[in-house]
Amino acid sequence: MNFLSQYIYYIGAFGLFFIGLYIMLTKKNLIKVIIGLDILDTGVFLFLIAIGYTSGGTAPIFSKSVTETGKMVDPVPQALVLTGIVIGVSVLALALALAIRLYGHYGTLNLRKIKEQRW
Amino acid sequence: MRRIIAIALLAIIVMGISLAVREIPFGKTDTKVGEYYLNEGREETGAANIVTSVVVNYRGFDTLGEIAVLFTAAIGLGAVFGSRKKRKVAEEVEKSSLIVYTGCRFLFPVILLVGAYIFIYGHLTPGGGFQGGAVVASAFLLMYLTCRGKRVRDKSNKVVESLGGLIFVGMGLVGLVIGKGFLFNFLPKGEFLTLFSAGIIPIIYIAIGFKVGAELAGVLDNLIEESK
What number is the ipTM of this complex? Predict the structure, then answer.
């Protein structure tokens, strides 16, 4: 039980990461590969946030009632994840656009079939 | 066969990573830089939200690069779709029902207001330019889904986007002109925990909010127009 409570976030984060990687390696449909890429992204973000956590910590935001820095989580991973999410959205949008173009060109999203065809 | 190879590969990666992660204790962070930002960020930047002060002030240059990536993605989307011949067939769009249309017209400004609130108060409460921009873009998504036939005007979208980027870079260059360095916080810090505080942070975050909102709305416009 102690082990679980200690590592549950890491297990969850890497669970998502490996689910995404497995989808990317095995699926034939391009849309599914892109979904796998997004799940992998989510795993990485969860891992970064989990690294910055301090037990019993609060969000790193001051207010009228919170004026002490004693129990705040690390703000740096959160700022990095904010960057990462935006990059993830950019990659997702561009990948989907390319998928639409591929479908228009080949008439299929099956990667094996696309590989067999000539340009 | 492919599956077995994939699972074997994943097992090897799991082994390696679990050996590495076991050494990282959960619930404890001793990074010096995070501690420094927490202790000094309040006096140095004047923003109540430390994540905002890291994103816009300490790592402002990084955020400029992030904006550039988003901009490149939006431009790339236009390039991928634009090279194709536009089939300009003015299709007769079926009008949405009165209830849906009225609901859209009622909700659209409210969602814009929520987005604006999120990015204007980015230095005091959870939120900021990127989150607020995403909310603003979701208002445009609602418009595309319900008020059929309406679109974002291409030109004004580009103007808002460019203005947002210009304000960000201009604010950074003023710091350089003063002689303190790019993105130096040259405005007075103001009173802590009030709206007019933290110098250039709220101005930059408002610019980012407009830019991200316009960019994501443009991306949505491109994707929806293409899939018709």
Answer: 0.82
